[in-house]
Amino acid sequence: MTNSLIQTLQLIANPINFFDNHAQRYGDTFSLRVLGINSPPVVFFSSPQAINDCFAISANKLDFKKATHVFKPLFGSDSIVFQEGKSHNRQRQLLMPPFHGDRLKSYGDTICNITNNVIRDWKPGNTVSMQQVMPDITLQIILQVVFGITPGERYEKLIKLLTALLDDITKPLFSSLFFFPPLQQDLGKWSPWGNYLKRREEIDKLIYAEISERRIKKDNLGEDILSLLMSASDENGGKMTDKELRDQLVSLLLLGYETTSGVLAWLFYLIHSHLEVKDKLINELQSLDNLDNLNKKNPETIVQLPYLNAVCSETMRLHPIALICTPRMAIDKVEVAGEKFPKGTVLVPCIYLAHRQETTYQQPDKFIPERFLNKKFSAFEYLPFGGGYRGCIGAAFAMYEMKLILTTIIQKFALELVDKKPVKPVRRGITIVPSGGVSMKVVKTI
Prior knowledge:
The protein is α+β, with helices and mostly antiparallel strands. It is built from 21 helices and twelve strands. A five-stranded mixed β-sheet has the order 1-2-8-5-3, with helices on both faces. Strands 4-12-9 form a three-stranded antiparallel β-sheet. A hairpin with a 2-residue loop joins strand 6 (about 335) and strand 7. Helix 8 (about 110-120) packs across helix 21 and helix 9 (about 130-145) packs across helix 15 (about 260-275). The longest helix is centred in the middle third of the chain and has 25 residues, at about 190-215. It is globular and about 60 Å long.
């Protein structure tokens, strides 16, 4: 019990050091107990072969609910995160279309407009913190593109409540509550858990009110993701219930807000601490100005630029959106990379360590976008959004969003880092962000 408690607290406090130290000591595969006091054995894998084997295990040999139970109070029991078998396939079928293909294109202008609105008052000489600006942008994008809520009273209330809730979740003491159920005691709104439940209730009221209004005007739904989910039917003609819709929206919010803003903070830091990369990126964007067709500098052309893609890909290799793939508990004996694991073992492909495999990446600790121009990595070597049948459904949307936010800003302003010292990765909720908040000075408008 003591080891389980210590290991869980070590992982919560400093996951980067935790993974680095254990990988250095034990290699590509190691077993720990990091899911609270009564944790089952949790085995982390980072070699491409082991990750391939993990993804290949039949779903009927795995239990995803038990391995991810700590997140249930956050996402809700009907979230796709906790579904298995036919239920998981059904929800995935309903959720996937709005995040892919032509649907993405309809979100481009909204993403750019929100970004422009947030940065409209920037002037030369201003100092801005990317760790404050990026969450502002990504939260508004989720509310408008995913929830479909336009600025107004409900929009402002949600921003206020969600910002406060998400800020709490990023604090180590508060996030620890989810790993230790005995601490989840509602002792009134002044207690940490009671305060969380109260705010969750207020947020849910606003979300259910929005869903109710959409149900009434069902023949006049918009193109936002909530509207598309409400219109979608499974193969039997069934639609999502209000509870399912609420849990999917909250899951998309929690998995796509802080994570995306964290990667954007890394993007701005890495680009502006590697000036040769910034120059190449600016030159690639400026090359669009030389094209005869004035419409070439639109969102769809920008997101396909190869060096921009390489810069974003390399940033997510060094600092992936999540450090691990979805944990999966074996409900039968399984074999991974030639090693057998008994029933009850939790299997975790580790994205962070996979992205630092020296056999896969030369100089893995260096920021080298060119590696993504010269080689295509397999889904078991490069997996910033997880992989297999539990991969992130919002991967294409997140990449699209990051590219447009980044380019909208660097095409308008020349920026430089206020502090040129190297930053350290620090934990903020479920993400790892650069220390110091990435303060930047606006040098000039472009």
